[in-house]
Amino acid sequence: MDLRNTPVLVVGAGLMGAGIVQVAAQAGHPVKLFDMREGAAAGAKAKLAATLDGLVAKGKLEAVAASAALARITPITALEQAGDARLVIEAVVEQLDAKRGLFGQLEGIVTAGCVLATNTSSISITAIANGLKHPGRVVGMHFFNPVPLMKLVEVVSGLQTERGVADAIFELSKAWGKTPVHAKSTPGFIVNRIARPYYAETLALLLEQAGQPQVLDACLKAAGFRMGPCELMDLVGHDTNFAVTQSVYEANFYDKRYVPSRLQREMVDGGLFGRKSGQGFYRYGEGAAMPALPVAVHAAPATAHEVTVHGEGAIADLLEAAATKALAGQGWGPARDGESAWTGLRIDGARLVLTDGRTAQQVAAEMGVADVTVFDRPLVVPALPGTALAHATAPTAGDSWRTQAPAWLAALGFAPLPLADAPGLVVARTVAMLINEAADAVLQGVCSPEGADAAMKLGVNYPAGPFEWLARWGPGGAQGVIRILQALDEHYRGERYRVSPWLRRRA
Question: What is the Cα–Cα distance from 61 to 53, expressed in whole angstroms?
Fold first, then answer.
């Protein structure tokens, strides 16, 4: 089946539908656009004309190509006018009955060989196809907003979707300049499922008052994410984000891994939706400004008599190079213990320990050392100078070490941000959970590891895919991720942090 250059019908003239029309028309398809709202399809074409003119003005599109693309777009006032369509893509309201009803109506209009694609972001493809005469031709074609710019397309197969249909949509997506990934129809598909921990872990930390939104955002942006989770939830809208989380939770039979946040529910109930309402975690509008990060000036750490770098791998190497530089003025450098069971620095009688998921209090108790500070995982190695890094100090630590710990982190080149003593801190627990969720998706046949990596990088602009993070984790690999998850599970109890069997096999 070859769908290139075939007639296309797009149903729904909203933002997503109009974007799909633009991409299809620019790819050479004759496109008909229908919307139940009177004048909506014609209005969408007028807006697309302005969009194409803008691209011409910026030198991103030739005037002849813009005119040709616009000429291929035909607004229609009745579905019956699109009987020649070989591909239908619906982008109507996100309701099962509406989508199933539309496809049922179209079965009496289009030919039996016409593919029926849905742009749904979360509704079961199997459920949409239920009751149709030809359920095998129903497939998910999930674009991301803004459609002309975002490269990812999730090609989603329900239980009855014919492989040839999914493959045809896959190839068509490539012809449209997109990067398609195959997915099985499960709640959230790939991106909306795997991304849940990015929001959930920050919401959990906020609920237990471990840190302020601007601190948590700074830590994750320092790890390479373009936006922190609080900024991103404000942008998406807490009403939308909460609804997706609730949908995934319910569709997974109330699996505790996906449980929505009471904090976010309170924000939604209070109308604090984010940018659209003027206030979410942050205030927006005229005169509003993002809250400043806490600024601390750290003096050089006090002279130490012994500094030893513990552990092996890229992070231990980073610490050794930074400690060598920090101690250069004293005329000596750190020792190295590559056989140690932990990664970090021993500074006289104190410890700076890379988090393995345990709290600083627990690490101090198990090491039998009072002066202990745990620090978050630097995801980008080597780290840029001044990279934000969360840390937490054990309650047993003395006043001197509480001053010296951030002074040493600053001397090592980081911008230390204090956090309450929460297990896994920020980056380590978030990335471990993203890896774990992706592992379960692969275990259940939702996608391949390569598909998961591509989907998360292209669909939500992650700096790396979950399996790429796993490959770079360092000594222990999957076992290191499991240690984080097990520490979280031991601390909180419940199902949320259970380890994926896929990870256990890998370890």
Answer: 9
Looking at the chain, the domain(s) classified CATH 3.30.750.190 span 307-418
Q: Locate the DSSP E strands across 273-386.
A: 307-310, 335-337, 344-347, 350-354, 372-375
Q: Report residues of the chain scoring pLDDT below 70.
A: none
* Digit-coded pLDDT (tens) for 258-307: 999 999 999 999 999 999 999 999 999 888 888 888 777 788 898 899 99
> In terms of pTM, does the model score above 0.90?
yes
Sequence-distant (6+) residues with CB within 8 A of 205 are 211, 216, 419, 422, 426
The CA distance from 427 to 75, in Å, is 48
Report the residue count for the chain.
507
H helices of 398-465, in order, are: 399-411, 427-443, 449-459
Supply 491's token pair: 């601390």
Q: Does domain 192-269 have CATH number 1.10.1040.50?
A: yes
Catalytic option among 29, 90, 142, 391: 142
Residue with tokens 């693309």: 69
Q: What's the angle, vertex CA 502, arms to CA 187 and CA 425, rounded to 5?
A: 80
- What's residue 2's pLDDT? 92
Task: For strands 307-310 and 414-418, give the pairing.
Answer: unpaired
The whole-angstrom separation of Cα 207 and Cα 295 is 24
What is 466-491 written as a DSSP string?
Answer: HHHHHHTS-TTTHHHHHHHHHHHHHH
Domain with CATH 1.10.1040.50 in the chain: 192-269
Considering 185, 192, 241, 261, which one is annotated as catalytic?
192
User: Strand pairing partners for 9?
Assistant: 32, 88
- CATH 3.40.50.2300, domain 8-185, yes or no: no
Q: Does domain 307-418 have CATH number 3.30.750.190?
A: yes
Measured distance CA(421)–CA(242) in Å, rounded: 27
Which token pair is 236?
Answer: 């998406």
Q: Which residues contact 348 (CB under 8 A, 6 or more apart)?
A: 304, 305, 306
Residue 119 annotated as catalytic:
no
Q: pLDDT value at position 148?
A: 96
Residue 357 in contact with residue 488, Cβ under 8 Å?
A: yes
Marked catalytic residue, from 29, 90, 119, 121: 121
State the pLDDT at residue 297: 79
> What's the distance, CA 60 to chain centroid?
29
Q: Whole-number mean pLDDT of the chain?
A: 95
Q: What is the largest CA-CA distance in the chain?
A: 84
Prior bond to 148 cis, omega within 30?
no
Residue 252 known to be catalytic: no
Query: Does 154 participate in catalysis according to the annotation?
Result: yes
In the set 90, 154, 201, 320, the catalytic residue is: 154
| End-to-end Cα separation, the chain, in angstroms | 42
